[in-house]
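Example record

The entry below shows one chain as it appears in the dataset: sequence first, then structure tokens.
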Amino acid sequence: MYPGPQLYSPAPCDPGPTLATVLDLALGEGPAVEAYRTASVISPGNLATAPVARGDFTVQAREAGYT
């Protein structure tokens, strides 16, 4: 079980629209949520080989230029 009811965005006060989209997605899916829910370490990796389970987060992060 994870430690609390929900995650919140650590985004800067005024992120650009591309970063805001990626961070909003990260609240519901992706490596941060996986680490939070499983209480395990998720090492940084290559988005080209990211698990399919991370869905739109991976797609949006790639489109934003993150690798």
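Notes for this example: DSSP finds three helices and no strands in the chain. The mean pLDDT is 75.
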